[in-house]
C-alpha cells in the first residue's frame, strides 16, 4: 500500500482499543478491521469508513466511529496501517504553538525529555511528554493533529484531523516497519450507553506541489470565527510588542516613550501590544501594579490616540502561586484527583496553577476580566498566552483535547466577534480559525547562541 488516499479504501487497520468497564481496563490488541467493517465487543463497537470528500477536489475522509453498548470510559485508541514510507520526509508538528515543527526522515528521532530535566525545570508540563510517549527511536516520527509526507518528486500526501473536539490526534510514521498509525488521546473520555461519536475523522489529500491548495481545503473544515474572516488582506498587519525589548520590565513610562517614538518616526505599525508586567500577579488581571499609575484605560487611550490599535497580554488559564486569586479562591483551581492538590501547570513566575474553566465562579471571573479589558479599558486586541494550562489533565468525563477545544471556544465567546485575538502556547488545531493570529515558535533572545 502507498500513501495515496485511495489506497486506504481497501486497506485493513490493526486496532488497539482500550476502555474502562466497571472500573476494570479492557484491552483489545491488534484486532483487524477493514473499511466498511466493524470491530465489536459486548461493551462497544468500532466502525471504519473511507469515502471521497464532497468538495470534489480529490480529497478523502478516513473515519473511525465508536458506539458504546454500555457506559464506558475510553483509555486508548490506535489504528495502524501498513504502507510504504521509503524515500519520504514526514512533517513532525509539535504539540503546541511554541513547539518545533519540521520535516524528518528515517534517520531522525524525537527524544523524550530526560527525567532529571523534567524534575528540575518542569518544562515537561509545557509539552506533551506526559500525554504521548516519545519513543526516542530512530525512524519513528510522530506529529500532532496533522502531518504530510513528501517524496523526492515533491508529491505531498497530507493527513489532517478534523475531529480534534474529541481529543488530541497523533500520526506516527514508523519508517522501520513501514507503518502509519493514528493515535487518539482519549484518556478520561466517558461515553454513555448507546452514545456514538466519530472519534477519528481524517482529511486525506495528495498532489504535486499542492501544499497551499491542500491547506486551503483543510482549513474549510474549521468554522471561521475570526474577527476578520477569509483570505482578507486586512488581516495582514504589523505590530510592536513590549516583550522582546523589555520582557517583564515594562512600565507606563516605557509605553509612552515607545508610542511617541513610533508615531514620530512614522513606523508602519498597526497594533501596539503591551505584554507581561502590568499586573500585580499572574491571574490577578484587574489588579494593576504601581508601574502604571494612570491605569490601563488611560494607557490604551494613549496608544489609540497615536493611531494604533491597542493590544494587551493575558494568560487566562494561568494562576500564579502567590496570586490573590489562588489564595482567595482555591476552589477555582484544577485539582488533581489523586493528590487532592492544585495541578501545577508550569514553572514560570515561580510556578503557576491552572484555572478550572468549568467552575462557575472561575468562568464568571474570566467574563469580568474580558469585559473590563475589552469594553471598559477599550483594548482592541488580546494576546492570550499559556492556553495549554486549561487542559493539563482529563476530567469531567472529557479527554484533554476535548477540554482544550472547549477552552478555545470559551475564549472566542468571551472576546466576541469584533476584537482581535493572538493565541500563544496553544495546540494549533484547537485554535484554528478561532484566533486571528498565533505566535508560532518559541521565544527569541536579542543575541545569537551557538547550539
UniProtKB/TrEMBL annotation:
Its EC number is 3.2.1.22. Signal peptide: none annotated. Transmembrane segments: none annotated. InterPro entries: Aldolase_TIM, Alpha-glycosidase_related, GH, Glyco_hydro_36. GO terms for molecular function: alpha-galactosidase activity. The keyword Membrane does not apply. It comes from the Eukaryota. It holds the Pfam family Melibiase. It is an enzyme of class 3 (hydrolase). It catalyses: Hydrolysis of terminal, non-reducing alpha-D-galactose residues in alpha-D-galactosides, including galactose oligosaccharides, galactomannans and galactolipids. GO terms for biological process: carbohydrate catabolic process. Keywords: Glycosidase, Hydrolase. This is alpha-galactosidase. It comes from Rhizopus microsporus.
